[in-house]
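Risk register update: the risk that structure generation would not scale has been downgraded. Supporting records follow, first protein first.
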Amino acid sequence: MFPRNIDHLHDPRLNKGTGFTEAERDALGLRGLLPPRVCSQEEQQRRILDNLRQKDCPIEKYIYLASLLDRNEHLFFRVLIDHLEETMPIVYTPTVGEACTKFAHIFRRSRGLYVTAEDRGRVARILRNWPERQVRMIVVTDGERILGLGDLGANGMGIPIGKLSLYTACAGVAPEQCLPITLDVGCNRREIRDDPFYLGLPQERLRGPEYDALVEEFVQAVQEVFPQAVLQFEDFATENAIALLQRYRDRLCCFNDDIQGTAAVTLAGLLSAARVTGRPLAEQRVLFLGAGSAATGIADLIVSALVREGLPLAEARRHCWFVDSHGLVVRGRAGLAAHKLPYAHEHAMANDLLTAVEALQPTALVGVSAQPDTFTEPVVRAMARLHARPVVFPLSNPTSKSECTAEQAYRWSDGRAVFASGSPFAPVVHGGRTFVPGQGNNAYIFPGLGLGVITAGARRVTDSMFYAAARTLAGLVDAACLEQGRLFPPLPSIRTVSAQIAVAVAEVAYAEGLATVARPDDLAAVVRASMYDGRYPPAK
């Protein structure tokens, strides 16, 4: 039976609030259940923004927007789409980090699915409890490495929710096609488990064969219940992130945004930086602070790009160097994890970042360490002494984990740094010039990539798709942006960016024989027509 009366006001996908027209109020039995004035969606937006801007702190703004999503989905996404620069830092980084740390305390209404360590043998049944059948995009986390905040257990659910909001706002993937999932396998931080409001399993993390078996059952259940879905692994600890991607990337349509999405947006930033520095990628030497899954993912994509340009694999790898918590990663150093070995080059040991910078003279410094204040003044000044336009990318987030700030990078380099960060920074005035720091946000990549994969019905997500996404993104940065210091397009243009990335990714799927949907004559038009925009649908 079609919902009537009060059901339309209580279902966030049907509710228009004061936006229901006079005819709709009569037809649906809503007369008298709403204030008499009919408001346009634009008028509703103005009311929402007025209330939002009166909130004193970001976490209160996050709670307010979450409550809007719970009662009026179309209006929520329309607000995000029309005011993305203002709202994205609230619904995602950096505020989502605080929201995750406080998730149990600010919990209002459940969103998404929880699969726990106690659910072995019934995972498919749990997935069938989700009311939507046409799920095309799933973001799943086990909460062990949330941003740079570490193990938050079930509190990490804020990440899949936030990521999927961006799929819809930035690329128009319909909200009913999106499903956030948390694998609650415990939490190893006692202060979280002992929190009386904690909503997850109050136990230490499942490890080893039992963990692997639960993930295997989950993957099989996704293939059974949602066979058309793309599975995005998000914020898993390095060891599991790398292992799960290797295990499943050739079995189902999946990817890891921390590894591959971060790699693509960083590669795009380096390609844009090359236009500023005059050094092509083949002349870059990149030094990473941090040697986890993000660093190795970025390095792997850079190497892939260099191999495409004609460099031998071994030579391409020597363009990437790592500094971890023990110093420079070099060949012969004892105890190196397997994922670091391809980048363990012959070189004298350097015990700290500054020594490594002086010895290697890198053209680009990339921070993925989640260790704040590690791009120190001596480090940045050394980069500026070695190169006229040093590339400085402190990519760790949230903002509290950034290796340095935009203001520090510009000041310590005398305004010569080519800068991009993982978290947003305000414009910086230095030497009479205003710099607009670019944010290397994965939201420039994963929404458009997902849309392209869905459009083509791709059976797999490949490295070629991320390379195409990076090239497309870099190609959309105009000279005016570069002059301002931006290495990425302005955020308000992100839906146009996502549409073009989707076309590029879909083209790769067709070229590699991975598409299951016939290629339309006008692929770009099909992509644009499929994009949800948050406007109220006409009355039925």
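Supporting record for the second protein:
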Amino acid sequence: MADAGAFLTDNNRNRQRKDRFARYGVIAGGISVLLTLVLIFFYLLYVIVPVFAPARITPVQSFSIPLTQTAAVRVNEQNTHAFHFSSEGQISLVALSAREGQQAVTQQQAVMANPTSFAAALPNEHVFAYGDQSGGVTVVKPLIRQGKLMMSKPLTSSYIQLDTQGQPLVQLAVSVRRQVAALVGVTQDQRLVAKVFHRGSGLDTGEQAWQETQLAMPAIGHPVTDMVVTPDGRTVYVLNGRQVTVIDLRHTVGRIRQQTDVSQGAGDPVAMTALSGANSLLITGNDGKVTQWFEVVSTGQRQLIPARTFSADSGALHLVVPEYYRKGFLAVQDGGRLTGYYMADSPAPVLESRLFSQTPDLMAVSPRADRLLAISEQQWQLFKVSNPYPEVSFSSLWQKVWYEGYPEPDYVWQSTSGTDESEPKLSLIPVVFGTLKAAFYALCFAIPLALAGAIYTAYFMSSSMRKVVKPTIEIMEALPTVILGFLAGIWLAPIVENNLIGIVLSVLVLPLVMVAVGLGWAMLPGGWQRKMPTGLHILLLMPTLVLAGYLCFSLSPVVEQAYFGGDIRSYLTNNWGIGYDQRNALVVGIAMAFAVIPTIFTIAEDAIYSVPSHLSSGSLALGATPWQTLTRVVLLTASPGIFSAVMMGLGRAVGETMIVLMATGNTPIMDWNILEGLRTLSATIAIEMPESEVGSAHYRVLFLAAFVLFVFTFFFNTLAEIVRQRLREKYKSL
């Protein structure tokens, strides 16, 4: 007896140790999961938060240089030197990193003696031109090679003669790109003169000579205030009087395409400059307000329209200086306050700082927009600018933005483009909309099928068949979604495209066939009904549904030919204005339903099957029909589990990647049309993350998209748990 007692005591101790180990293991696992979620959450925030950091500007150095008559100044890529262009035709190289006692002006070189005009191309072109008394123009591109100031010839000849008929050039505008260049001047008697240059696009373009074309320019009537030439050499914008004249340079004769009053009923315009790419013009009025103008296509013609106006509360804006590549600019208010603006944001400034006691004579922004150089007479000031992500803000992410060339503000996701000068469009609304659209249409297919299947399997189906059906559907969840996406994009999409009428007929006819079969079964004599074993009625329904589906697809071409002219897609587009993409939300809904159905079915079926049998037996014993017992007892008791199943399916649909990546066309448009494509958050991350530059605005916005997806999932799961607990509390008395 003593040995038996000792044996039981040892067993109890071993069991207690195992229970304690299991309890601690479960606790450790749960804590690890929570810590992992918290770490993911904070890592996403760690990457995202810098994109919303405010812009800052700090002084670097201040020095005095005996250079006067400044026409322009530019900072090189490395922020080590500045190019000073004087109105007297001289270029000086200034060392910005010179230490005390060192010579700041390292080199000087004369370009033209006694020039009468000066022009600077767009900042990223780094091309400059001087005009003289006889109508000649010297075009140069200064460079630094081995610490020395060099002058390259961007055109075949550095000296170009314009047909001014002996008149001096009083104004110039220049643009030089790899294959095209344009030079426009204004003579003393206010005549326009122009030359356009082209060269071939062969493999070795460096040895190809420029071919120049002299243009006959129209008279514009008012004195010219300013000019801007577009980088493609096709257009010149001329600010003359209160209007901007748009002149087409694509032919041998310049043609006035449009003349627009840009005063907007207020003060006269006094200056005009172009943003990067010259797709937008910044026109400064004598009231100190700066208005952005760009061309849009309206009624088949291009029209110059105002998009937004920038103004300062404390005074007028002066010295508008655009950035090299981004759609932003800096200006100085009355009183010396520096203000920075960005086009994709609201007219409110993204940078404000009181830097100067008075307005500088000239300012320049470095190519990387991380330095600002200000000149007041002979005093030079260099500042460090920290504003790496001006294109990202709450308004650019979640509100409509009026982008260049768009007829109105819109939600747009377009993170990449053909040139560096294109405006990044990083609105998350289209991809969030696409995520919800894909999940919505997937659940439209999955919820009815999964819940109906779960109800029938758990409540009506025989146990022998349930043992086969339930594992079979659960195995569907193991099917890789990449296979489903591949089949949806390659196999299913063409079938839907060629049998669209059949799909629609199936959605309408199959439920009616099911009801008809049920009514027919109810009308059969009792003896016939008893011959079919309980729970196997589906064996009669399945062949009928297959036959009905086959008939729907067989009638598809007949109906399409009879009522839609043989092409349902063209009919929808031409008659109803409904677009059609081969990879659309219908294909995604069908394919994703196959991925979501096993999740919803399994959880809902377990919840329904777990309802205590005494509840349904008691209901039937009191005279309720099986249908009444199902709807008023079983489903109410299982409602917490059914709701959890639906929410789990929603979470699965929201986070799905491969199916929406391969079967949607990935078009970030906002249209509930089931026949149009879409783009989701997860697909956007999967497509663009490998190509994004680490630390860039695009990179951080993709992490923000991941954070939004994380919050979506957390929100839906939390909501599901809250509702499930309340439903359980409400129906626990059953």
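The longest strand covers residues 136-145. On this basis the risk owner (M.S.) recommends closing the item.
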